[in-house]
Amino acid sequence: MKYIKTLIILLVFTNCKAQETKILLKQKLISNLSNTPIYQHLTENVDGQIKWKENFKYLDSIEIFSITYLSDGLKINGLLVKPKKDGKYPCIIYNRGGNNDFGALVIANGAITLGQIAKEGYVVIASQYRGNAGSEGKEEFGGKDVNDITILPKVLKEIKEADTEKIGMYGWSRGGMMTYIALTKMKEIKVAVVGGAVSDIFSSIKDRPEMETDVLSELIPNYAENKEIELEKRSAIKWADKFPKNIPILMMHGNSDWRVKPTQSLNLSLEFEKNRIPYRLIMFEGGDHGVSEHEKEVNEQVINWFDRYLKNNEPLPNMAYHGR
Prior knowledge:
Largest sheet: 9 strands, mixed
Distance between the termini: 80 Å
Radius of gyration: 21 Å
Number of strands: 11
Strand order of the largest sheet: 1-4-5-7-6-8-9-10-11
Number of helices: 11
Oligomer: single chain
Low-confidence stretches: 12-19
Structural class: alpha/beta
Helix content: 25-40%
């Protein structure tokens, strides 16, 4: 009898412990896209039948989920996209741009932005960040909300298809800034891609003063009192020497980008050069903030970079000066 009681106590304790450590709280399949605004863009009428357009036939090979997970005790919402076919797949953490509802992830992002990566054989996860799209907490535009990214490798461990030994990171605009910050705080990331990334928020304010009045002063805690310190925390140009030397970074920028001037990536690449950080910089002629004029090439570059360092286990670039 005593043995049975002890066993029951152990089982209860074990179950409680498992519940405590569970981070992924919800994973809901979005099985029907027909009632979403993006549906008409994805489909066409062929002989009276609605079918995926040629470019979107891959949607039959992937699954899109809305997710909720824990970060600092807060319930954070996001998206998860993965191949339907059983297997273990390398992972990509995607960091969205914008702030508040501007740039918040919608089903279209899951179907297109994340879906085009997932169809190549990747598990892709993305956070709305705290305070956004129903997530608890308050956004800090690169403050404690970075924790909503750095916790994602643990979330991925609860997804059976995820190969958490192979994780890359991809961020655009503000998401690029989040990526830069996260790379200095994480050990799980093997490779990174950024596009139109904010790397010098001091320059952002000079180029777009409304960013300070409408965004930074509203979202960053104690902004007026700690302005210089807080801006430096969000400006990779100030701490390029802190980047790990074992994460190859692909930087992409349109040289007609008015939201984040291309000089931000150019100047950071020079700092990477000084500190021998492995990087590749691609400037797209006439490209806007999303480099929409070169969309196909951008997508190819992204997949190729991840394939090289996650799927094909390509050796790190030799950053020592060498050759004839």
